[in-house]
From TrEMBL:
Record key words, sorted: Metal-binding, Zinc, Zinc-finger
Annotated ranges, domain RING-type: 493-529
Keyword Metal-binding: yes
Protein name (record): RING-type domain-containing protein
UniProt superkingdom: Eukaryota
GO function terms (MF aspect): nucleotide binding; zinc ion binding
InterPro entries: Gfo/Idh/MocA-like_OxRdtase_N, Gfo/Idh/MocA_Oxidoreductases, NAD(P)-bd_dom_sf, Znf_RING, Znf_RING/FYVE/PHD
Signal peptide, first to last residue: none
Native organism: Aphanomyces invadans
Length: 540
């Protein structure tokens, strides 16, 4: 996947009445390449995927369906541009659909997959493909015979830890020949707290259980490194006189890689006082790789005691969307190929901040290009484009319309909404309201955003202060104390209210947790209770 055409605002004519004509036509041309996606299943995973789709400029959610009418209604209220199908089959039969995402309970996966394949759709399905192994093999054989475009969602495929496990082991590699792997996981309760609303199936043997739901992710990653596994022994413990899923699992497996035998131990338990724990330990003849907390914690231990530093990289869920987009297009979508396919800014926060900084330093063309990279092809046109409209093109009317469009698709606790709301207030002349919104957003946040800089530059007409804020946002100041002129240099954790040196960056965009509190966070954000798949510490 390459870049869609980048809109260069310097090429537009100077005619005020038609200054958006060329931009609109070229934007429409870019939008014609967008692929339509149907989403079946609107629980936790379905909602996550809808959010993800808005970050991917070449995929667009169009139709949704869920067996629970209230879930459909709530989704339509959040995303009014979506259409609800009358049934799962009705959704699959919709004209103009290119891909289907399946996030229902597992029993329905195989039938929905086969129906989608009958329609020629690209399919992304949550695991497992089927609760019946024989039926799953039949479907895999069908997929292979027809070269269908399909995938099962295992997000660890794009994890840095998996790439390290694939590259660090070997006779002539830093950690030597891999000879032992241990997978261990435990939960204080099952299902996990954030899954309580998903239904009973997660706690029952037929479709649920932690082995199928969680350990499968790590077994998938293991097979990516060592190839096929042979089961030697397994033992599961189930509650007596019930249909509930396993509470304990112990298994031994074996594999062969580069001629070396590898022993594998897998264990999982529902017990203890730790809400969620998981670790995969890869042992080689020269050292060990330890991957914890969904591969987000990486440690390399060399046998000779020397250091082996690893620069950890944040894995954004946009990685999955990029692979998915390549899959839909019938293009290669392995980690290496898909990760280099679309080198555009994928983090809206940074993209907008970068653009604003370019505009403040006089690089109008660069700012416009950055904004277009961010907004290109997105159904939800963001405040980033409004910024171009209001400050570069001097078109407050268009900016107000863009903001209204953006606001209609956002949630009140989102960073984007806070900035958009402030922009709308500023455009309407409500300076006091805009400043209050900005204060609500920036107060207590270690990363001072471009939102406050926008207030400084456009409302207070203080570009010097705005530049300082941008400099602070981009990490030019390594310690908060070194930037006394920047706003909110003394910060407090919103959980324990103590001064802090680091913050926790969560998918829900809450940035105000100290290092001590961040270590206690497991599955849920303590502020909005949103589920957490990954998190990244930001040092100031």
């Amino acid at each position: 996947m390459g870049h869609a055409n980048v809109v260069d605002l310097s090429e537009r004519t100077e005619c005020t009445s038609c200054k958006w004509t060329h931009l609109r036509k070229r934007t429409e041309a870019a939008m014609s390449d967008v692929k339509n996606v149907g989403v079946i299943g609107l629980g936790v995973m379905g909602q996550r995927m809808l959010q993800l789709l808005y970050k991917q400029p070449t995929l667009r959610a169009t139709y949704v369906w869920d067996a629970n009418p209230s879930a459909v209604q709530a989704t339509l209220e959040t995303y009014p541009e979506l259409k609800a199908a009358s049934s799962a089959s009705d959704l699959i039969q919709q004209q103009g659909l290119h891909s289907l995402y399946i996030a229902t309970p597992p029993a329905a996966h195989i039938d929905l997959t086969n129906e989608a394949l009958d329609r020629g759709l690209a399919v992304l399905c949550e695991k497992p493909l089927s609760t019946d192994g024989a039926v799953a093999k039949e479907c895999v054989a069908r997929i292979a015979a027809s070269s269908a475009r399909t995938g099962v969602n295992f997000p660890l495929a794009t994890a840095q830890g998996l790439s390290l496990a694939e590259s660090l082991f070997g006779d002539n590699k830093p950690l030597g020949a891999l000879h032992n792997v241990s997978i261990s996981a435990s939960w204080m309760q099952w299902p996990r707290p954030w899954q309580q609303g998903a239904g009973r199936w997660l706690s029952e043997r037929q479709e649920g259980g932690f082995t199928r739901e969680v350990l499968s992710h790590f077994v998938f990653a293991l097979q990516r490194v060592v190839g096929p596994l042979t089961l030697i022994h397994s033992a599961a413990t189930y509650p007596e006189e019930s249909n509930l899923a396993e509470t304990d699992l112990n298994a031994r497996l074996s594999a062969t890689r580069d001629g070396h035998a590898i022993s594998v131990q897998v264990e999982g338990h529902v017990r203890g006082d730790i809400p969620c724990y998981n670790q995969v330990r890869w042992e080689g003849t020269k050292g060990t790789l330890v991957l914890g907390r969904w591969f987000s914690e990486i440690q390399v231990l060399l046998a000779d005691g020397s250091d082996f530093p690893v620069e950890q990289k944040h894995r954004d869920d946009v990685d999955l969307a990029t692979h998915w987009a390549a899959l839909v297009d019938g293009k290669p979508n392995t980690s290496d190929e898909a990760s280099t396919a679309s080198p555009v800014d994928t983090v809206p926060l940074v993209s907008q901040a970068k653009s604003l900084f370019q505009a403040l330093t006089g690089d109008v063309k660069g700012a416009a290009q950055t904004q277009d990279n961010f907004t290109k092809g997105c159904p939800v046109v963001s405040q980033a484009r409004s910024l171009v409209e209001s400050t570069i093109l001097r078109d407050p009317s268009a900016a107000a319309k863009t903001q209204k469009h953006f606001l209609s698709f956002s949630l009140d606790h989102c960073i984007g909404l806070s900035q958009a709301k402030s922009l709308v207030q500023a455009i309407r002349g409500d300076t006091a309201g805009a400043l209050q919104t900005q204060d609500n957003f920036t107060r207590g946040c270690a990363v001072i955003s471009q939102a406050r800089s926008l207030v400084e530059s456009t409302i207070l007409r203080n570009p010097e202060a705005a530049s300082k804020t941008q400099e602070y946002f981009f990490g030019k100041k390594s310690q908060a104390g070194e930037a006394p002129d920047c706003p909110s240099s003394t910060l407090e954790c919103v959980v324990c209210l103590t001064e802090m040196k680091t913050v926790l960056l969560l998918p829900c965009k809450h940035l105000c947790l100290c290092q001590t509190c961040s270590t206690k966070i497991t599955d849920l954000c303590p502020l909005c209770k949103a589920p957490i798949a990954t998190k990244t510490s930001v040092f100031l």
